[in-house]
Amino acid sequence: MAGFVAFWIICAFIGLAIGSSKGQAAAGFLLGLLLGPVGLLIALIMKPSIQVQAQRAEAVDFERARIREQQVGTQWQPARRRSSSSWDDVDRRNRR
User: Fold this and answer.
1) pLDDT tens digits for the chain (96 residues)?
2) How many structural domains is the chain composed of?
3) Half-sphere exposure in the Cβ direction for 2 (13 Å, CA)
4) What pLDDT does residue 40 have?
5) Is the four-CA dihedral 12, 13, 18, 23 of positive or negative sign?
6) How far is CA 47 from CA 2, 31, 76, in A?
7) Is 81 inside a domain boundary?
8) Cys bridge to 82: 5, 64, 72, 86, which one at CB 3.0-4.6 A?
């Protein structure tokens, strides 16, 4: 009996972790506590809260912008300017 109760409590805390990642920690905890493994499955398919969806969308937008900046930075590089001494060398070669 003690093992059964311990298993249900473990399910409750796993449900808490799943629900917390979706912004619904209390719902995940209660599902795990009351329904055990079935509650964990329900918590897994539960939709994230609106705040979590907004945070994830913002993170995706930020990552896309960061990748875009990296791609532009590696593809386009301004031409290096020659120093005046290197132009002098070119002039000397042309005079010969």
Assistant:
1) 888 899 999 999 999 999 999 999 999 999 999 999 999 999 999 999 999 988 988 888 888 888 888 877 655 555 555 555 555 555 555 565
2) 1
3) 0
4) 93
5) positive
6) 33, 14, 42
7) no
8) 86
CB of 43 within 8 A of CB of 18?
Answer: yes
**Dist. CA 59–CA 69, nearest whole Å:** 15
Q: Is residue 18 part of a domain?
A: yes
Residue 39 burial (CB < 10 Å; 0-12/13-18/19+)?
Answer: buried
Task: For Cα atoms 8, 11, 14, give the angle at the middle one, nearest 5 degrees.
Answer: 155
The distance from CA 83 to its chain's CA centroid, rounded to whole angstroms, is 44
Range of the domain at 6: 2-73
* 86 belongs to a structural domain: no
CA distance 56 to 73: 26
In a domain, 44, yes or no: yes
- In angstroms, rounded to a whole number, what is the distance separating the alpha carbons of residues 10 and 5? 9
